[in-house]
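pinging the channel bc i need a second pair of eyes. not urgent but kinda urgent?? the chain im working w is below, pasted from the shared doc
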Amino acid sequence: MFSMQFMPFVVIGVITLIVFIRNVIKNKFSEKESIIWAIAAFIMILSPLYMGAVDRFVNFIGVEYPPSLIFALLFLFVFFLLYRHSAATHRMNEKLVELIQLNAIHENEIRSLKEKLSDKGDVK
């Protein structure tokens, strides 16, 4: 049974879903990244509708205080996001180093070509 005390979760979930769909349309987020947020939004929207199932699940795994399970799940979600962003930052740093090295190689080649041309007297 739906209770009005869970209405803020539904509202926040709907707002989250709308914001991320809008940002995907504007190409501010990739579809891949927005799927994670869409799943989180759907969970926030649907969880108040299935509180009985949530209570049975909490009792099944032996948690005595259900909000502590929610906190643990949110902590794992944030940890997962931090891991993904850390891995993406690492990949971008590797690409940046590669691009800097490639740029230096190209600058060196251009410099050597200019020197060869200036030795021949073709470049002013």
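so The chain has two domains: 1-62, 81-124. and Helices lie at 7-25, 31-46, 51-61, 66-120. — does that match what u expected or am i reading it wrong
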